[in-house]
Specification:
By secondary structure, the protein is mainly alpha-helical. Helices cover about 65% and strands about 0% of the residues. The protein has a domain at about 5-85: Ribosomal protein S20 (Methane Monooxygenase Hydroxylase, Chain G, domain 1). The protein is flat and about 75 Å long.
């Protein structure tokens, strides 16, 4: 199978970029895992948060992850920091109240506004 030189080069570039992106993603995921497992002092946690934010920003800057995902990851990390500061392990999600089922109202048809030509044959029989 013949491949042009440009296709081969493009393939080499894709592999290189893929490896680079995976490494950047793994960097902040590794820090996040370490943070969740650790229960160490505030200084150590503050340092880990700083490293995490740096890694996430680098991944977003290079395009390995979307900038909105970077913002979401940082927000979740800060929420974890706040919970660890309080001594909790997990945030409780608020329960949603069950909505009462509303009855659908049947719209009354004004007989003057009905066009007899557009009425289906099944309605004419009634």
């Amino acid at each position: 199978m013949k491949k042009s030189m440009s296709v081969k080069k493009r393939h080499r570039q894709e592999i290189t970029r893929y490896k680079r992106n995976v490494a950047k993603k793994e960097a902040f995921k590794k820090i996040k895992r370490q943070f969740r497992k650790s229960g160490e002092g505030e200084e150590k946690l503050a340092l880990m948060v700083k490293e995490f934010q740096k890694a996430v920003d680098k991944a977003a800057k290079s395009g390995a992850i979307h900038r909105n995902k970077a913002a979401r990851e940082k927000a979740r990390m800060m929420k974890l920091v706040a919970l660890k500061g309080e001594g909790k392990t997990r945030a409780k999600s608020p329960r949603k109240k069950a909505k009462a089922k509303s009855r659908k109202t049947v719209k009354k048809i004004n007989p003057r506004r009905i066009n007899p030509r557009k009425i289906k044959s099944s309605r004419k029989a009634k």
